[in-house]
Amino acid sequence: MFIIKIGGGKEINIKGVISDLATLNEKIIIVHGANALRDELAQKLNYEKKIITSLSGYDSVFSDEKMIDLAMMAYAGLKNKRIVELCQQKGINAVGLSGLDGKLIQGKRNSGIKVREGGKTLLLRDFSGKPKAINKQLLNLLLVNGYTPVLSIPLIDENNFAINSENDDIVAHLQMEMKAEKIISLIEAPRFLLDKNDPSSLVLKISKTELETMEQKVEGRMKRKILAIRKLFDGGNTTVIISDGRTESPILDALNGKGTTIT
Amino acid sequence: MFIIKIGGGKEINIKGVISDLATLNEKIIIVHGANALRDELAQKLNYEKKIITSLSGYDSVFSDEKMIDLAMMAYAGLKNKRIVELCQQKGINAVGLSGLDGKLIQGKRNSGIKVREGGKTLLLRDFSGKPKAINKQLLNLLLVNGYTPVLSIPLIDENNFAINSENDDIVAHLQMEMKAEKIISLIEAPRFLLDKNDPSSLVLKISKTELETMEQKVEGRMKRKILAIRKLFDGGNTTVIISDGRTESPILDALNGKGTTIT
Predict the structure, then answer these.
(1) Nearest residue in A to B154, CA atom
(2) Whether this model's pTM surpasses 0.90
(3) What are chain A's domains?
């Protein structure tokens, strides 16, 4: 089994990805983003994304009800169904699902973020959280019957509300349960880049141990990124490939060693 | 088994519908519309719905690629996932699917509509069609495992493209395969109205035979509506209830004889 994570950028060659997947003889689970599409839609609908800054100085998107509406339209709606359509055209019998469907991806809602507003400290709580469990029975039901799950946010929280979550965390949880042989993460860069301003920092091969050493040395976003990759190994041995989603054959390129391979 | 058709108007009390369904001990399939939401979204996105008039004088919405995008966002995205979320909150383990997912609802694309434009006769072909088959295996897989399917357009056509279709036709096809004991159709009117300008034309009970006689006497939209109801009996005996979706308890009202019952 392969888990394929498709980044939500505009430049990922999804047609190429699906064509490649159709040539493999593997069970596949696809997890996709749609942030470029969501942002475009938000702009067209004159909806301004709210960024809040926590007391500890950490910026995040505030997922209010409207942002969840947008996620349902962009992720679970347009992007998901166009990917399913492409799969069907290539002979992959895809079934597109959000975390709400059959409680497929269950999460815990974040308790809130402390912010300073007008001299006061407020606790702002949005519809976001972390994945905590997978409905493995439903996933296996689909897989053993020849269907390819195509998954997206929103997740379902402990009170059955739709919540936003990070795809990195979703993939890590899926991997804990499903133990895929390979995880291919398609991004809009040639390979995993240690320093996004330095093209010479592209990494071709790296071990999990080296990754841990690396994590200590970096800060902020990159630290979180490396942590997310490390988590993929929590469920046991696997191969993680971070590769360019913009090429003609993104999956075949990834499998042929053109991305960053982590073992 | 009950099939519940939820109209796509703004005034349907979906919370009430789901609360009612949660009290029943029945297998359920939900088919929902979202035309009000889609039209609202189209307007906000400055997308003008194209209405074309055929040579025979019949008006229809032209489903171009953009209209399918809108259907994916409004029907399969926002409306579907909010209904699934409500179901989960009431303890119904819903799974929202479009006709594309697992080729659940397969259709045949319309061959095109002849129109007059600039003195010429043109054949305009859009992404619309009629349902022809259901993936009964997938529906049963979900139903026997305790999941409640929540279905919407788009359908998948013979070349694996997403197409628009009428919910009346989808429900008729579902019924042919699934043979539900009751079909409840929730509308934004007190009951089935023979003449929409005459409140006294509300029908409480009617037989399939009476419906056929009635069909001969009426024209246009009403003729098509009656034909759609008649088709629901093609798969064998059932009870069709057309009832007000705007009340506090739309499903219980329907079951308690407040709608139009057709046997």
Answers:
(1) A81
(2) yes
(3) 2-262 (3.40.1160.10)
